[in-house]
Amino acid sequence: MSLGHSTVVCVGLLLVSFYHSANAAGNKASNSGTTTGSGKCSQLPNVLSSTNTYKIKELMTSNPWYGYLTYNSDTRTAQDPSELNVVNYYISYWKSSEPTRSQPSELMYQQKRKYVNGSCAYLLEVAQFTTDGRQFGPYLQTNGSGQITDDGYDASFIWSTDQKTYIMFFWCAKHDWTSGNCASTHIYVYTKANPNDISKSQQDSINNAVNSVLKPYCLDTGKFAKYKWDKNLPECPPLPVSKRPDCFQHYENAFITLIEM
Predict the structure, then answer these.
(1) 195-212 confidence digits (pLDDT tens)
(2) Cα 226 from Cα 230, distance rounded (Å)
C-alpha cells in the first residue's frame, strides 16, 4: 500500500477499524490455547481472557513507560526486525476529552517515541481500553516532520502487571481460528523506570513475575530481546499537535463513532 496520500491511509485505517470493532466482541470467545504433543507446553491462544479489573486511567496515564523487553514468535530470534535499530523507546498515554458513553472502558491516546536509525519516530494511536485490559484502535507512525511511515491496527491485551513497576502486553498479530492458537505472537514488557536505572534485584523481580506468567507456554525472559537505551541521546520530544498528520483527527472521530454504535 502506498502511503503517499494521507487520504488513502485514512480511509484504509477507518475500514480496518470498522472490521476489528465489529468483530471484537465475537472474538473474545476464543479458547485458552491447546497443548503440544508432549502435553507440557500450552500454545498461546488467539485471544487471552482475564478476570482482572484495572483502573485504566490511573494505570496508563502514570507516564512515561519505558521499553524493556520484546518477543516476536515469527523471527525465532525474539527481536522484531522492525525494532532492530530502535533506541530509547518511550510510551505515553493520556485521557481523551471524548468519553465513551455506552462501553465500560476508557478512550486513551497513545504516543510512542523512539529513535529509529538515529532519528525520532512516533506512533500515534487512539485506543479503547476495556476494564479487563483489552486495547484496540488504529495507529499511524510518523517521522519528526509528521510524514506517515506506517499504519495499522492494534489489538493488544494487558497480560500481566503489578501496576507499579512493570506492564506486559500480548498481541496476536495473526489469528488461526481453526486451531484457536495464535500464529504470530508479539509480547512487550514496559517498566516504570528507565531500564538503565533499574537495579539487578529489581530486574530479577520483574523477570520472575513475567516468567511465572510465561511458564505454561515454555517461554521465559531469556528468550526475549532487550530494548536498547543510550543515555547520550536526548529524549525525543512529544510530537507537536501541529505536526500530526491531518487525518489523525478524522480517524479519531470516526473511531469514536464506530465504538459507540
Answers:
(1) 989 999 999 999 999 999
(2) 13
How many residues can be counted in the chain? Answer: 261
**What is residue 153's three-state secondary structure?**
strand
| Residue in 110, 219, 212 with CA at minimum distance from that of residue 161 | 212
Please state the domain extents for the chain: 6-259
φ and ψ of 93, to 5 deg? -125, 150
| DSSP annotation string for 71-139 | EETTTSSSS-GGGTTEEEEEEEEEE-SS--SSSSEEEEEEEEEEEETTEEEEEEEEEEEETTSEEEEEE
Please give the average pLDDT of every successive group of 10 residues along the chain, which has 261 residues. 47 51 41 49 86 78 85 66 69 61 60 82 81 81 81 84 92 89 92 92 96 94 89 82 74 64 55
Provide the CATH topology of domain 6-259: Lipocalin (2.40.128)
CB atoms within 10 A of CB 33: 18
Q: How many Å from the N-terminal Cα to the C-terminal Cα in the chain?
A: 29
Return the amino acid letter for 24.
A
The grid coordinates listed for 222 are 531469556
Q: Tell me the pTM.
A: 0.80
DSSP 238: P
Query: Could you give phi then psi for residue 202, rounded to 5 degrees?
Result: -70, -40
Rounded to whole angstroms, how far apart are CA atoms 17 and 22?
8
Return the bridge partners of 134, or none: 157
pLDDT in tens, 25-60: 334 433 344 444 455 788 999 888 777 888 777 787
